[in-house]
Specification:
Distance between the termini: 40 Å
Radius of gyration: 26 Å
Structural class: mainly alpha
Helix content: 55-70%
Number of helices: 24
Length: 567
């Protein structure tokens, strides 16, 4: 891996590869579902209204997530001036911060050489790269949890370091008001106490900071949470409106404790995260058979660094596995700790021929999969046509996607011939760099008009003309975000029949200049179907456009349907 290059070039070349690969595609696409449009929509509302305390989704308060991530997106927009260029910046900067923290910890805990291996191990994990290129909360959460681990490990493994301890507590607090599980780094205290008991059981001296110093974590943690909870508490005391109280109850109770103990969606079996690690943590998960025994030896001889890193990772896994609601991104905070735990073992592992063969085989499989997919797309196969039809995409996409995938496969094959099995680690590193360049620079931008709903919303604007007014019923966040004019909407979670209760009179007030965009499943029976315009499909949703003249003012039939479900 890193040993295949001159040592003086290792650090700058690795960081150059990481930065370019993760930044590829910045400014080339719009927010895409499921999560990105709702966060950008809330951030845009903050910028336009000047009200940053409570995020909004249209006219409704958005109570599913705290506003910290949306603050970051809004602040990035204020600096850059473009949503297309700014909405991915928080995730990109959080990913780079996480990698730097991992490198610094590996340097402190082991050596500068091991810092390179830790960064490479984290960068080459599929899930890390995917989340670094998505505008979701999770990458910022990982940066906060890793920063907290950085402070805690410096205090517990090096020497008494109260500034680092305060930083750890504050980072955990900010992480908690970013996404509720930001407190998880504090659980590292448990394996530390276990290590102390283990040392005493063996009759060895127990060094390190006094346990009482950890009490400083509490005020630091509260200080971090006060970033948002303090202004929210002030607003509740001075403006105790029903909407604000409902928002606070929804976010602080239902979306935290209730969601963890009795999740109403994303319910998965207890072993779900094992399959996540076996797939999304490739290629590192391939090395697990060679890692277990060395880890166990280090734990038995009382290596504090591995006690803390592995013990904390196990606690996080148990914590999320105990909840019935599971998503693959929940275990993402474990990755930096595991990359650190792997770093001291990688130099030796990469000298083993079977490890090199596994990594070479992984790169070959990546090459074969992308090459086969590229050929299928370029050959205009029935499978490719079916995928286009399912997503209402044009045939012109096929050669673009196919050539990109085939070019990537050829590039990886060329690297494999050049590097061979002997330098399989470097092959994996360069392959992942190329993969994220392809993903961010070509594949996602090519799919963007259809994935972001910008294509269908452009057709809406062209169909109704520049002077018409537009409303939406049963809308999705990306529709509202991509609209080319101010939109009248009647709530996101409000039942569809109630939305029509307001949309009908709105249409009737100016039937010749007003239109409604509606999901096909939510169409009202009070509409003249002959005047309805089929405007197309976006994100596997079929959208219809109806003029005000299609509304029957004498009809009072109710629409059969529900409201939106939060993903």
């Amino acid at each position: 891996m890193p040993d295949a290059l001159p040592r003086r070039w290792l650090h700058p070349l690795l960081w150059l590869l990481v930065a370019v690969a993760l930044a590829a595609g910045l400014g080339l696409r719009q927010p895409q579902p499921p999560d990105e449009p709702r966060f950008v929509l809330a951030a845009r509302s903050m910028v336009e209204s000047g009200q940053w305390l409570l995020p909004h989704r249209g006219v409704e308060l958005y109570a599913e997530k705290p506003p910290v991530f949306m603050w970051l997106q809004a602040a990035a927009h204020q600096l850059v001036g473009s949503w297309q260029w700014s909405f991915l910046l928080p995730s990109l900067l959080a990913a780079l911060l996480t990698l730097w923290l991992v490198a610094d910890l590996a340097r402190r805990l082991w050596s500068p050489r091991h810092a390179l291996y830790a960064v490479a191990a984290l960068f080459c994990t599929l899930q890390f790269g995917l989340m670094a290129k998505r505008a979701q909360i999770d990458m910022v959460l990982v940066a906060m949890t890793t920063l907290a681990l950085w402070g805690l490990l410096r205090h517990l493994c090096e020497r008494r370091n109260l500034p680092a301890l305060w930083l750890a507590g504050a980072a955990a607090g900010v992480g908690t008001v970013t996404k509720g599980v930001g407190f998880l780094p504090l659980l590292i205290v448990l394996p530390w106490l276990g290590w102390r008991l283990h040392r005493r059981h063996l009759g060895r001296a127990v060094d390190g900071p006094h346990p009482a110093t950890l009490l400083w974590l509490l005020p630091a943690y509260l200080l971090g949470t006060a970033v948002w909870l303090a202004p929210l508490g002030w607003a509740l005391l001075h403006e105790p409106s029903t909407a604000l109280q409902s928002y606070a109850h929804e976010l602080l109770f239902k979306q935290t404790g209730t969601r963890y103990a009795n999740a109403w969606h994303h319910r998965q079996p207890v072993w779900y995260y094992l399959q996540v690690m076996a797939t999304l943590w490739l290629p590192g998960s391939l090395l697990l058979p060679w890692l277990l025994r060395p880890w166990w030896r280090r734990l038995r001889r009382g290596d504090l660094r591995h006690w803390l890193l592995l013990g904390w990772a196990v606690l996080v896994l148990v914590f999320f596995s105990a909840s019935p609601g599971k998503r693959e991104v929940y275990v993402l905070p474990m990755l930096p700790a595991l990359a650190l735990a792997v770093a001291p073992l990688l130099p030796g592992l990469l000298r083993l021929v079977w490890v090199r063969r596994y990594l070479f085989g992984y790169s070959a499989a990546l090459m074969l999969c992308t090459g086969t997919l590229g050929v299928l797309l370029m050959s205009d196969s029935a499978w490719a046509q079916a995928q286009l039809a399912r997503r209402a995409m044009p045939e012109t996409l096929l050669p673009v996607l196919g050539q990109g995938l085939l070019s990537f496969a050829i590039a990886v094959a060329t690297l494999a011939v050049w590097l061979r099995v002997r330098r399989a680690g470097l092959l994996v590193l360069l392959s992942h760099g190329l993969l994220w360049l392809l993903y961010g620079g070509l594949l996602i931008p090519a799919l963007d008009p259809f994935a972001s709903a910008s294509a269908v919303m452009q057709r809406v604007g062209q169909r109704i003309g520049p002077d018409a007014e537009l409303a939406m019923v049963a809308w999705r966040e990306q529709n509202l975000l991509q609209a080319d004019r101010p939109v009248q909407e009647f709530g996101f979670k409000r039942p569809w029949d109630e939305q029509w209760h307001y949309a009908g009179p709105w249409l009737a007030q100016a039937p010749h200049t007003r239109w409604v965009l509606v999901l096909d499943q939510a169409m009202s029976p009070c509409v003249d179907r002959a005047q309805v315009v089929d405007i197309g499909v976006a994100n596997r949703n079929h959208w219809l456009l109806l003029p005000g003249t299609a509304w029957n003012v004498d009809c009072h039939a109710a629409t059969v349907g529900m409201s939106q479900e939060e993903d």
